[in-house]
Design brief:
alpha+beta; 490 residues; single chain
Length: 490
Amino acid sequence: MAASQICQLHCRCAGSPSVSTIRLRQPAVALASDRSFWLQDIAAAPATEPLRGDERADVVIVGGGYTGLWTALRILELAPQTRVVILEADLCGSGASGRNGGQVHSWFAEIDQISAVVGLEEARLLCADTVASIAELKTLQQNGTIDMDLRLDGWLWTASSIAQEGAWETAVALTAAVGENRFRPLTAEDIQRRTGSSASYVGVVETTAGTVHPAKLAIGLRKLALTRGVIIHERSPVLAIEPGMTCTVRTAHGAVRADKIVLAANGWLSALPELRRHLYVVGSEVIATAAVPELLDSIGWRDGASICDSQAQVLYYQRTIGGRVVFGRGSGNVAFSGNLGASFNRSPEHGRDNMRELHRVYPSLRGVAIEYDWSGPIDCVPEHVPVFDHLRDHPNIFYGMGFNGTGIAQTPIAGRILASLVLERKDRWSESGLVGIKRRMSLPPEPLRYLGARLVRAAVGRKNEAEIRNRKAGRITNLVAALKPGRRKN
């Protein structure tokens, strides 16, 4: 499963000095029937052989999702002779990269949060970099390199209740202040015309944004990486990493010795105690309807825009090229001690809350069958801005985490940062304000974190239920819900 290695540090003694070994728990690989619509739609399957025997590499990347694949590609852009090996526990893109809502938008929506970490000038540059990433995706599709169903019909950031109104104002104002014109206002008529729904009635649109088929993108990146010389071993979950000047990465049937390691493991990094202090994982539930293109045409929903509202448990949805509705919601499901079990593949509730919200937003879809439901983990840090660094005692083991559910246009930038760190380059990427975890906020230890998260999750749910009906939640509910880190997420 893409980026699905679950890690935990242990120490063992070997003679006089102690040797730290990073031992990895095995992931809960999704059953074929529990995979996302995206993965099932293209019958995604491993294309490479598991690791067997011993190999040597310059760089080993743990995780074959967007971050791992983009990092491999960026390394080879800078140093084409580098031998890069990706070890993937399941198949490339089977983790968060192949389970998301397929929404593509720039970092300008988060410019206020990014500037709080790196300053306004670097925030402007990073946001502009994601605009360039979207253009890069467009080029990859137009030149036939990756058929990813990219449709740049816009990203609609909307409000469907009084409490949600103006959620975008700070980001829009800062974007304008740095000389960018990324957003334009939407009226109720605009939204109705674009989405076929009157549930949201005000908002803004980022015009150079839209939707993608996440699994097609992941599988396309896998093919591109293989073409450019990256060695990929799927169905090769890592059991342990033995650090040192040269690291040894062990799987059940082989080992790779390498000078550098990149942990591109998304939410599964939360099981590593050193990183769990800064990382928490929440679940997101997604459903996909049967294909009903004529019905969607009849209500005026014809294009490939991505759509969000501004709830704390945000709704995000799109119409696929085939006429399905993919409808997701940040459920707030939390993992205890970084243990992402089977419920992070598919919820026992099978998208019940999503169906209720889908029918609120689109009453005309009440009779349409829900043919797929799945879950996915979102790697979150309190600042809602990714962080990159190396492990505290291991300067040649790097990681990137905290994409907070916004990664399709952002992981190409993550790849640049990680590639520069791995290659020891002194440039704007390695010296970015996104590098360095010491300045980042820490979270409470377990079990306080889990218990607190459950309380906050329940309060956020009650607050959402009240506000979506333009009612006010109780004082205690509001106080507890306010403890939720960050501003918004899709």
